[in-house]
Amino acid sequence: MTSYSVDFWAHQVSSFIDTIIQSPTHLTGNSLGGYIAAILAATNPHQVLTLTLLNATPVWRGLHNFPLLPWNSQLPAPPLPFKLSSYFFNSVRSIPTISNLLSQCYHSPAAYLSDSLPHKIRAVTTNKAG
User: Fold this and answer.
1) Whose CB among 12, 24, 88, 111 lies 3.0–4.6 Å from 106's, allowing a Cys bridge?
2) CA–CA distance, 41 with 81 (Å, rounded to integer)
3) pTM of the model
4) Domain extents for the chain?
C-alpha cells in the first residue's frame, strides 16, 4: 500500500516544476494543497515566485500530535482518524452548515438561495443532486 505524505506530494509538485515548467512559478494551494504549497515554498524557494493560500488549514500538521490519534497524517488514514474525519466532513457539508457559511459571505440571501447554491455545493461532495 502506498503511503501519501505531504512531503511526498510536495516532492511531486517540485518534480513537476523542474520537469514540465522548468522555471520558478506562481503557486496557489487550496486547503491541504495550501499546506503542500507552503512546504514546497519553504523547502524549495528557488522554485516559487509567489504563494497564494486559499482556505488554508492547520489540521494536517497537528493531527499526528493528538494523543488519541497516533497517526502521522499520511494517507490512507487508519480506521479511527478516518471515521472521525468522515463524521466531521459529513457535518460540514450539511445543507444547514453550507447555508450558514454562505450567509456569512453574501450580504443578500437571494445571492445564494435563489438558485439552490447550498444544494449544488453539497451535490459536488456527494456526486448526486440534493
Assistant:
1) 111
2) 28
3) 0.51
4) 1-76, 93-130
Condensed to tens digits (0 to 9), the pLDDT of residues 39-68 reads: 999 999 999 999 998 877 655 555 555 555
Q: Secondary structure of the chain in the HEC alphabet?
A: CCCECHHHHHHHHHHHHHHHHCCCEEEEEECHHHHHHHHHHHHCHHHEEEEEEECCCCHHHHHHHCCCCCCCCCECCCHHHHHHHHHHHHHHCCHHHHHHHHHHHCCCCHHHHCCCHHHHHHHHHHCCCC
CA 71 – CA 29 distance, rounded (Å): 23
